[in-house]
Amino acid sequence: xxxxxxxxxxxxxxxxxxxxxxxxxxxxxxxxxxxxxxxxxxxxxxxxxxxxxxxxxxxxxxxxxxxxxxxxxxxxxxxxxxxxxxxxxxxxxxxxxxxxxxxxxxxxxxxxxxxxxxxxxxxxxxxxxxxxxxxxxxxxxxxxxxxxxxxxxxxxxxxxxxxxxxxxxxxxxxxxxxxxxxxxxxxxxxxxxxxxxxxxxxxxxxxxxxxxxxxxxxxxxxxxxxxxxxxxxxxxxxxxxxxxxxxxxxxxxxxxxxxxxxxxxxxxxxxxxxxxxxxxxxxxxxxxxxxxxxxxxxxxxxxxxxxxxxxxxxxxxxxxxxxxxxxxxxxxxxxxxxxxxxxxxxxxxxxxxxxxxxxxxxxxxxxxxxxxxxxxxxxxxxxxxxxxxxxxxxxxxxxxxxxxxxxxxxxxxxxxxxxxxxxxxxxxxxxxxxxxxxxxxxxxxxxxxxxxxxxxxxxxxxxxxxxxxxxxxxxxxxxxxxxxxxxxxxxxxxxxxxxxxxxxxxxxxx
Length: 510
Prior knowledge:
Blueprint: H1 2-138, H2 142-189, E1 201-205, H3 210-216, H4 221-230, E2 233-235, E3 242-246, H5 250-266, H6 271-300, H7 307-315, E4 320-321, E5 324-325, H8 326-344, H9 348-357, H10 372-382, H11 387-395, H12 405-419, H13 428-443, E6 448-454, E7 459-464, H14 471-488, E8 496-500
Parallel strand pairs: 7-8
Antiparallel strand pairs: 1-3, 2-3, 4-5, 6-7
């Protein structure tokens, strides 16, 4: 028990001593902190006073610098203002001088105007006097003299205008002919087509004259059967070892020729065999027609044609015009039109398509009424060809107006193909009639003394009366004759019109 009390007493004493010691230590730290705080405050006050003095010095220096710059800028602006003021004063003095000069010039102009007015009045008076004197001397009034002068001026201008027109025409013709010759020559050089002679009869050669009796048959039954089935006339005469087949339908004539050749080669000639051979030959000819049409389109590189049009093109293989095969002519026109279109930068395929179709109406013109150009245009429209193609076909003989430049090329290519040497032949009667009409057209003009058609109708030379037509009026006469020929006469190619005016001086030595 006593030990416990001692322990408790010691514990209480330890706690009291510890508390007293901690109190002493705390008071010592507080005192030290207060001293340190005072020291820091004093140091801060010293530093703030030093910083304040520094800032005051810097502020004074900045104010001094700004005041110096302001003074400098003020001096510069004052100097600039003085300079501008001097310039304004100089300009004002210059303006004053100019105003004085202008006023002086205006005064001079007023004086000159007064002088000019006086001179004008004097001139008007003199003019009136001279006019009156001229009217008295000439016996004409001023209006009559004016009309006379205008008439002379008009005649001179008309004369000069004709001369100028002639020069321009000559120049244009030279350039146009040169370019046209280049294009046409290039096209012709690159295109050459064959042609056949027009004929309405075919000849079948026989191995001997005894075959004629077998062709005729008993009481003529074989020849009647052949003529009935083909629609062609067979002429069996004294011509040795030959039978003539006559007919205007070239396809029927071809069917009859091939059938007769097969019958002669086979030797069996009787109505049943004739009917069999004719039917077989007709199918072969139709196949040949289709192949010819396809060959023509392949040769001209034209695609997309209706099969019926291709078949009609093939039928042209058996059609001729003035000795020229129409299919070869159409192919030639397609090539020529395509080449000229390429040279001129036009639609090449359009021109070739219109060229191969331009005479398509000739395949059926013996079956339908109307011109082949209109028939061909109707066919093209029926088989959905473009309006431009239809117009080119219808206009290639000048029946309707041209709607495209390619249509003009079709007409030109058609003429080139028709008039090249050896392409066509013309009957003597038609040839003479064309020359007579050509001379009659020229003779119908006033002042024409005589006309002569030369070079197979390619040129007409006209002699005019020199006392009625002068050199420049002859140009107008030539142009008028050309227009009348173009409107009234149909002809292949072109016709050169030459007007000749000559003056003859005749005298006699006695």
